[in-house]
Amino acid sequence: VQLQASGGGLVQAGGSLRLSCEASGRTYAMGWFRQAPGKEREFVAAIRRNGPSTPYADSVKGRFAISRDNAKNTVYLQMNSLNPEDTAIYYCVARTTYDAILSALRYSSTYDTWGQGTLVTVSS
Q1: What pLDDT does residue 51 have?
Q2: Cβ neighbours, 10 Å, residue 119
Q3: Which residues pair with 85 in a beta bridge?
Q4: 37, 36, 74: which is closest to 57 by C-alpha?
Q5: Which of 31, 37, 104, 110 is the most exposed place for a label (fewest CB within 10 A)?
Q6: What b/e sequence results for 18-48 when a residue is b if at least 16 CB atoms lie within 10 Å of its CB, and e otherwise?
Q7: pLDDT by residue for the chain (124 residues), tens digit each?
Q8: What pLDDT is stored for residue 52 in this prediction?
Q9: In the chain, where does DSSP find H-type helix?
Q10: C-alpha triplet 16, 18, 19: angle, nearest 5°
C-alpha cells in the first residue's frame, strides 16, 4: 500500500486547509503526524477503519477534524483556525494489517505505512 497526501500549502493565521491522503489499497487505522522545523515528530489525529473514536493531540483539539471515506481509501484532515505553530510537514500514516486498539493510535509504531509528507505553512 502506498499513501499519497495532498492539500498542503501556505495560509494566513486564522485560515483553513484540508489535507487528503489516498491509499492505494485497503487500510485500517489511519492518521496524521507532523514535524515542525527543529522539533520532534508528533501525533496529530487518527481514525480507525470502523469506529467512532478519533483521538487528537491536545494542541489541535477543537480546531482539526479527521474523517475518512473507506470506499475511496482516503483520510482527510480539516484544519481550522490555523496558527503559525501548526507550521510543519504533515505525514499521513496507515496500518494495513488489522485495526489497532484506541490507546495505540497515538504511537508512530502502530503504523506500518507512511506517506511522503505535505508541507503546511501558516504565516502570522
Answers
A1: 74
A2: 11
A3: none
A4: 36
A5: 37
A6: ebbbbbeeebbbbbbbbeeeeeeeebbbbbb
A7: 999 999 999 999 999 999 999 999 999 999 999 999 999 999 999 999 987 789 999 999 999 999 999 999 999 999 999 999 999 999 999 999 988 899 999 999 999 999 999 999 999 9
A8: 79
A9: none
A10: 135
- The candidate with the shortest Cα–Cα distance to 105, out of 68, 34, 54, is 54
Q: Which of 35, 29, 30, 11 is nearest to 20 (CA)?
A: 30
Amino acid at 102: L
The contacts found for 108-116 with CB under 8 angstroms, 24 or more apart, are 108/33, 108/41, 108/43, 110/29, 111/29, 111/31, 113/1, 113/2, 113/3, 113/23, 113/27, 114/3, 115/2, 115/3, 115/4, 115/5, 115/21, 115/91, 116/3, 116/4, 116/5, 116/91
